[in-house]
Amino acid sequence: MTAQAAKRLRDAEAFRLRGPKGGSRPTTATPPNVDWKDPDAVWAFKRYVFSRMQIEVRPGELVAYEPHPGQRPVHFPEPGEEHRYYVASAGQRAGKSLTAAAEVTTAMGMPGQRLWIVAPTYDLADKVFDEVHKHLVRDAIYGVGSVKRATGGGAKKGSQRIEMRWGSWVETKSAENMDSLVGERLTGLVLDEAAQLPEEVWTKYLELRLVNLKGWALIITSPRGFNWVWKYWQRGEDPERRAEGWRSGKFRTVDNPYIDPDLIEEKRRTSSATDFAQEYLGEFVSHSGLVYPDYRDELFPRGHLFDPGELAIRRDMTHFRAIDVGARHPTAASWGAMARIDLDGAGERDWLLLYGEYEETGLSHQDHARQINAISPYPLEQTWISPDAKRRAHLTTNRTESPDNLSPYDIYVKEGVYAYLAADDFSAGWSMVTALLRRALERGGRQGGMLVSRDCVKHRKHFLSYVWQDQRPQTMEGSRRDAPDRPRKYQDDLDDAVRYLAAGRPYYVVPPTYDEDDDYDPRGREGFRVGSRPAEARYLRPGMSFE
Question: Which end of the chain has fewer beta carbons closer than 10 Å to its terminal beta carbon, N or C?
């Protein structure tokens, strides 16, 4: 043991016995008296805080928080291994939420801290926040009255917040609401389940929040293939090439001393090697468990994204829409345009470009229909709607029920949303989406594939987080995998809309010629079509004659 390590242990023991400098617990307005510029003092203070954090490891059994080997580099980096950004890949039940909560709880003892806990949804962000709330509010580890105000601990879902008497605060944020991720200057943040989010959440929103105050970030996630988190994880992994201020690590489930080793061995025997490596060892492996493993969240031609500033969606493309009707679950809609273009120098092909999205809950079917119609930017060739919308008993809303006993489908029709019932065979729709994603990355193929606008953040998040519910049997026939039939039924509404859109087999329609003023749009359906062949077809406004 080095002299520095021995000194730290002695200081930590002193903290445990007498508390922070001054000998007593803080008053209602006094933060812990710690020299925050002294690494040894901070190290000892963390040890003191962790000794007071009571963790329930089994029903009724509480122990002080003692980081396991995977967690220690986050809290107690060795000399020369200090970090500003830490990327952690974690297996199931490896303690990633507890790690994040311990870092936030310690930081809240320092005056003037401005912290966010960010996750794909508020439910996920609350997992870390609830642990912080327990230590700061319920257990009052900084003293009774040290918390100025707090929400959480059973409060309604949404942004939660804790404020300390000395000006520090922590707040939860959901990446579903991108507008809420701007404007604030932060001293630190936790990004939980980062692999379920597109890279822009970090690069365009969160990273910028840390610039002014030189804040820290803990990016922590369960791995989901070789996506953008893996790229950032590599920044801190290789000692020879890692970026300044970046460090990386893994939390293995087997490192958690409170997990039954027999359970881990059972999972090792019953899981595939890749599933076990990802889910229990925190390894980045080849897209195990994703419904659409071929999706790449990068710009074409390396991935499936297109920049709408460079590839503009035009009115003369053929536009389609698909709607998944819900009430207790969100109602979702997806817009796509078919375009015959040359994207990669291999000649013109027909491409499906996803460019619009809608995902809302808590509204009546009538309000959903009106909003979906209002944001449809172009005349539509066809719309598909979920088949169970025809059922009168289908998902009556919490706010209102149809007084005329109309089905959701009938309500949509009354609001001007005319649609065909979508094909609801999951296997067929999954196969179509998978085929379109694969075609997009094949150069010189006869048909184009599917691309997603980089502005469609929700579409991208769903492609990255849509997983199979259970371990699925796989058979290999060349490069083809048999389709299983049990995706996870959780926040899959937009995925269903995309599947309905692909299963409808959208097609490209050559724009017809027409006789009219330059500003008249033939796809506006204001007139009627004359001519039996597309090359001869012309549209006329009502009341005009064709000569």
Answer: C
Asked whether the beta carbons of 125 and 178 are under 8 A apart, the reply is no
3-class secondary-structure state, position 542: coil
User: In the numeric block, which tokens belong to residue 52?
Assistant: 């007071």
Asked if 103 and 74 touch (Cβ cutoff 8 Å), the reply is yes
Place of tokens 């959903």: 368
261 and 358 share one domain: no
d(CA 146, CA 88) in angstroms, rounded, equals: 31
Q: Quote the CA–CA distance of 299 and 210 in Å, as a whole number.
A: 26
pLDDT, tens only, 174-233: 988 777 888 899 999 999 999 888 888 899 899 999 999 999 999 998 887 777 888 888
Residue with tokens 């599917």, as numbered in its chain: 450
- CA 379 to chain CA mean position, Å: 31
Distance CA 468, CA 57 (A): 29
Tens digit of each residue's pLDDT (9 = 90 or more) over 355-370: 999 999 889 999 999 9
Instruction: Return d(Cα 179, Cα 175) in angstroms, integer.
Output: 9
What's the number of domains the chain is made of?
3
- 544: tokens are 């005009």
Does residue 434 sit within a domain?
A: yes
Q: Which residues pair with 322 in a beta bridge?
A: 334, 384
Q: Which helix (DSSP H) or strand (DSSP E) does residue 133 occupy? A: helix 122-133
Give me the torsion for CA of 68, 69, 72, 78, rounded to 10°. 150
Pair (251, 222) in one structural domain: yes
- Tracing tokens 């991208």 back to the chain, one arrives at 460
Q: Are residues 264 and 332 in the same domain?
A: no
Q: Are residues 499 and 540 in the same domain?
A: no
